[in-house]
Amino acid sequence: MIDQIIAICIASTLLFYAYFYHNAYRREKKLRQILFRKNLTNSEEIERVIREKEKQYQDIYDTANSIIIRWSPDFRIHSVNPYAEEFFQIAKDQVEGKDLVLDLFRIQFEKSNEIKSLLWNIFHRPEQNIRQEFDVYVGSDDKRTVTWSNRILKNEFGYPYEVLSIGIDITNRKIAEENLMKSYERILDLYNNAPCGYHSLDKDNVVVSINDTELDWLGYSREEIVGNLRINDLLTPSSYEKFEQIVHSFPHENLTGVELEFVRKDQSTFFVSLNSIPTFDKNGNFVISKSTVFDITDRKIAEDKLNDYSQKIQLQNKRLQKAVEAAIKANQSKSVFFSKITHELRTPLHAVIGFSQILEKDPNLPEHLKGYVNSLYENGVHLLGMINDILDLSKIEAGKMTETREKFSLVQLWDTLFSMFSYRFAEKNIQFELLHPETIENKYYEADLQKIRQILVNLLGNALKFTNQGFVNMEIQTKYGLEPNIDLVKFIVKDSGIGIPRDQLHSIFEAFQQTEQGSSYQEGTGLGLSISHQLVDFLGGTIQVESDLNKGSTFVFELPLNHLQDIPIELLQKSKIGPTDSKEVWHITKADDTEKEFVQNFLNSKENPFKNEILMMIKIQNFGQLLQLLGTIPFDDKGKTILLEKVKNKRYKFLIDLVQSTSS
Description:
664 residues; alpha+beta; seven-stranded mixed β-sheet; transferase
């Protein structure tokens, strides 16, 4: 019984433990399943995060604006990012597995060991992010400067298996830094070697900076002055007192042109002009003053000398004033003398000219003397013109010139000038023309016509005298003046003559002055342009000249003239414009030239042995015997007939021109 009870107890116990372990096993199995599922979920999450991180890294790697290279300790390239491909201009598959220094950086072989040694130093500091800077080459010769950030990557055993290098191209920055440094050096050089001195003072007037120029003036070194000396140590006592008064009177104001006396290290002095500008911080507190210093010692010495000279000049001016007054009186006396003497000369000269005209018309005057009488008349008229020039100048200088006003038209003025000069220009085969004649029609004025005409006669006479070929043009322009009924009338005389040297233009309007070309080219008093200039001034106008040597001259003068409102009928009748071009009268002078050719052919004919006798009789003006000689020549010739006609009609000018042209 007891055995059965024990057996039952043992069996119950075994059953209990079996049941307990069975339930425990089931619970453990269920727990393991739960943990497995949980670990599986965690593993998937971890893998997902890793994949996301890898994707982010790859995105950064692919899109970075920096050069990223992964390479092994033996300098073999593992990978490069797209930016590196673009920067080095080489494809990824062409460079991976190649040598970093030789194939990617393209460093020359002889310099490659130097760069590899530099990169190998990374492994001496494996825990640090190593920064380096060196040049690489893009293409064959494009050198770029790159700054590198290098990081060593290690495996699970702690051994370095790869280097991650991130590079940034700093070529432009380096160039900018170099340019900035050069600019700084230039500015520093300008500061130190400027022709003036520069220094700065702090609030205690201690020198905190100074340039080399001012140091040279003072004779100190920079160490002796900067931070050690005050401005009062560099000034004489009187100058420092002056400086203090100005600074106290005008605190925090700019100083300009303050003259001070500086003391050198050897105690000698020199004068300066000081300009100073104060600078302040953002709170308005004074920081330093910046000063510019100019050495004015030479100027001060010159001023002292100038003061001495000024006193001497004042004394000399008083003496000169007396001399000028005496010269004015003498000039007035000279003008009065010229006025009187020329007036006295004109009276007998008029008599000479008058008597020569009477003699020329005398039928009893021998033929051989008529040419001399004509020459006497022409020279007398020339001399009278010179005397009139001197008399006009004397009147102007003596202040006796008066204005005579009369009514006239510009057409009337032109017709007078054309009749005076057209034949003379035609004789020289020079074209004399009025440009734009329509501008002078219906232009009527009241002014001193005689003086205006005299100015134009002088200018046209000069143009005729100094022009041998080409043209002489005249133009008249009008425009309204500033006042009613006043026109500004511009007269322009242009020629193609010998011209005037530019260095002599300033003197052509002076009395008794002629240019070198003019004085050697023609005789004259040299008063025409001076009188014209003074007449223009007298009439309230201006005159100027432009000229080129051997190309011609242009004289322009402008006068204010009173425009007529009511025009007299007789003036309208006289204002019909006539010829405006000397070509219209060329046929007359050309006819003489043609006749002269026939006569010269007759004289040079082999059938005429009397050429020299004929020319001699013309020279001595023995025209009676000449007519007899021509009558004895047996053959008929047109030149002989023309010569007979000229001798009978006493064409002296034709005969004299014939002798001159044949002799030459």
